[in-house]
Amino acid sequence: MADLTVLPVPGGEAVLELLPHLRSVLDGTAAPALPVPADDVREQRRLVDALAPGTPIDPSTAMVLATSGSTGIPKGALLTADALRASAAATHARLGGPGRWLLALPAHHIAGMQVVLRSLAAGFDPAVVDVQAGFDPADLTRAIASMTGSRRYTSLVPTQLIKALDHPDAVAALASLDAVLLGGAATPAPVLARAVDAGIRVVRTYGMTETCGGCVYDGVPLDGVRVRLDDGRVVLGGPTLANGYRGLPSHPAFAEPGWFRTDDLGRLQDGRLQILGRLDDAITSGGLTVVPRVVEESAARVDGVAECVVVGVPDERLGERVGALVVLRPGSSATAESIRESVAADLGAAAAPRQVVLVAALPLRGPGKVDRTAARRLLSESRNP
Fold this sequence. Notes:
The chain is built from eleven helices and 24 strands. The chain is of the alpha/beta class. Strands 8-7-9-10-11-12-13 form a seven-stranded mixed beta sheet, sandwiched between helices. Strands 14-15-16-17 form a four-stranded antiparallel beta sheet. Helix 10 links the parallel strand 21 and strand 22 (355-358). The protein is globular. The N and C termini lie far apart (57 Å).
């Protein structure tokens, strides 16, 4: 047995100092490591307390990467070098060949770490955008201009793409890449349409830490990845799968050998996987079930709406009421009432949010994921019923 070691991961170009170590991670010669953010002592302590570095672990584990949940005790996915290499190889095979990658996400999370590892697997050092102080599309433009290689890629979250689309130079830079992977959260259809119309080759990804990141691209599983539905629940298998969770050998998500039971609701349509939302995000309002993603997609079609999150808010009469936080694009004339009326006309009164609150930005956790717990709290505290 080996001991799990802490791997502090710095932000910005300082992450390049870890490249020799990360090459050894890919070839399976490094000690099992727990990546933690180098500049966030509180998060380091949370991960160390939960995942017990300095104690024995199966040496086949290359990395223990923490899931990005914001409540409770974090779980650590046991990722092998074989799984990480399989993910990189399958990604490059789907995209058209190995290439150089631009890192624009924190590298201690799976999405950012995979950008680095894919670039190393292709024989390149990654280019880097420093997002420690926030994402600036101008930095994206400069970084892409400096990239060499016959094929160039990056991975973004929807909030970054939304911001970049308002900057013509950033749009042109993204359009020069061979692919822009987009994951971490649902992308509003109008945002995707704007990107495609601008010539950006967007690839929507679905996956999680437990599958070495994205393993389904544009609804189609990567080579070797298996997908099935159990009563609507998405279940994933294949060579990119984690070997379970650190210290939780009997966790029900990995109870069936070779498969991982997600918490996502999906459907297969014409051979493509469509994610409908998380099972535990469904809202029961007045005895009716409302799927938040459907409402979010409807609200996003309102002219001037940039982003939206829909959650259930405790309600004495209904049990839960449908609530929405909405971010408007600059200059938008949309109002809370016009958004509510549009959704009601589209989906019916039962699905329309009874509460719409306009905010400057959605609360986030991890790399671009909306913090639904914080959204629910903001709506509960709002005076807009």
